[in-house]
Amino acid sequence: MTNDLEDNMIDFEQPCPIRDVLDRIGDQWSLLVLKALEIQTLRFNSLHREIGDISRQMLSRTLKKLENDGYISRTIYAEVPPRVEYTLTDLGGSFLKPMNILIQWANDNHEAICLARKNLSQ
Amino acid sequence: MTNDLEDNMIDFEQPCPIRDVLDRIGDQWSLLVLKALEIQTLRFNSLHREIGDISRQMLSRTLKKLENDGYISRTIYAEVPPRVEYTLTDLGGSFLKPMNILIQWANDNHEAICLARKNLSQ
DNA sequence: CTGGATCCTCATCGATACTG
DNA sequence: CAGTATCGATGAGGATCCAG
């Protein structure tokens, strides 16, 4: 009797781990930030340029949330002008492994989803 | 020169496949519904009981969205009283494979995330 | 350069009541 | 049994201005 089923089940009771994760990275920007930092360490304005259409306001909030959950780390250099670098933590890198599989699935099946949406609009 | 990097990148241009997926699945209930249907086909009220604290309103909306994207199928039986069964489609089952990996990651790392949150509140 | 503070808008979600 | 309609609350996200 293995506990495969149990491992695979969602715990409907509080706290729900996957809910914690989805609530944090399910927003509009978190995943884009993580994917940008997966390539390389970046500072605030570099991230802003990289992502493009995010406001500085939302970038700031997103970074703080990701840092609070341990996905990224923030390093301040006491220079003039100030420099702040954001780096993926081990936890963040670990998270991107299963997440990249899901991203790959999304890329592979995007056509099927679009097709399903079109079919119902006929 | 492989295209591994390209496969792994998020397309910042529209439409973004992973955004389509996260927008649909990132809400409060979709994943719970899919996980419930992963076990077995269920009818509306069975799902309602199974998930527990979802309102019929939200269950109805969630089911419709999932059906629209092809994750589940809806079968109506012309009986009295009416019977409607919801089943996972091939696409839905396919989606749960990478998703289950992510769920497993969330379970495994939930403690680390909680720890990160506590550390900052000190 | 790296943000915080404030105000605003809009989509989402819940509660309630109603229908075939 | 299986939903829909309507209304109100809530919070995510954007715009703008200000600060260290």
- CATH-level-4 superfamily name of chain A: Winged helix-like DNA-binding domain superfamily/Winged helix DNA-binding domain
Give a count of the beta strands of chain A, DSSP E runs of length 2 or more: 3
| N- and C-termini, Cα separation of chain A | 48 Å
Q: So what's the oligomer here?
A: homodimer
Strand content of chain A: 5-15%
Order of helices and strands of chain A: HHHEHHEEH
Instruction: Give the C-level CATH assignment of chain A.
Output: Mainly Alpha
Quick one: biggest sheet of chain A? 3 strands, antiparallel
Q: pLDDT average of chain A, as an integer?
A: 87
Short structural summary:
Chains A, B: Keywords: DNA-binding, Transcription, Transcription regulation. Two copies of one chain form a homodimer. Chain A has 122 residues and is mainly α.
Topology:
2 copies of one chain form a homodimer.
Chain A: H1 4-8, H2 17-25, H3 30-39, E1 42-43, H4 44-51, H5 56-68, E2 72-77, E3 83-88, H6 90-120
Antiparallel strand pairs in A: 1-3, 2-3
The structure holds a DNA duplex (20 and 20 nucleotides).
Protein name (chains A, B): Transcriptional regulator
InterPro entries (chains A, B): HTH_HxlR, WH-like_DNA-bd_sf, WH_DNA-bd_sf
Domain HTH hxlR-type (chains A, B): 16-114
